[in-house]
Amino acid sequence: MGVDPGLTRCGLSMVEASSGRKVVALDVDVVRTPANQPLPQRLLVISEVVEHWMETHRPDVVAIERVFAQQNVSTVMGTAQAGGVIALCAAKRGIEVYFHTPSEVKAAVTGNGRADKSQVTAMVTRILNLQAAPKPADAADALALAICHCWRAPMLARMAKAEAVAEEQRKAFAARMKAAVR
User: Fold this and answer.
1) Which residues are recorded as binding Mg(2+) 1 (predicted)?
2) 138 appears as a binding residue in the annotation
């Protein structure tokens, strides 16, 4: 499940990955909340829709865009709060959550970490073999997040395994050094 968090528009997507880089879009939607609605109510709406999505689609993992600094502090706060609500929904179900930066997503999908929205949308449309480009951009971004995670997950798993092996080796070395000092 890929999520482009936001208070006004929150993109949700569900994809299925198979061997290689084959990814199929299963569902995509954008949750909208009115800007004049109180913040707790907006977060509740997002939470309820995400809970329904998770219940319906039963994702293995959730990939959420990592909030990066933006010029508008209230926008970044709202985006972070929406992302937190989504991560909480996943955690309550025991679903792993991964965060990807916008540049990681753009690089994975287009090959360019500085790609613009139209380039991301065009590549998402091509990768998923869609008849029409997903709209609005939040839908395309949610699909891009899901694609990014599907393609990066094997590398992330290898890195985690390598880090675990390195930690075990560090502990074994420290134990040998401690024994040698005695």
Assistant:
1) 4, 138
2) yes
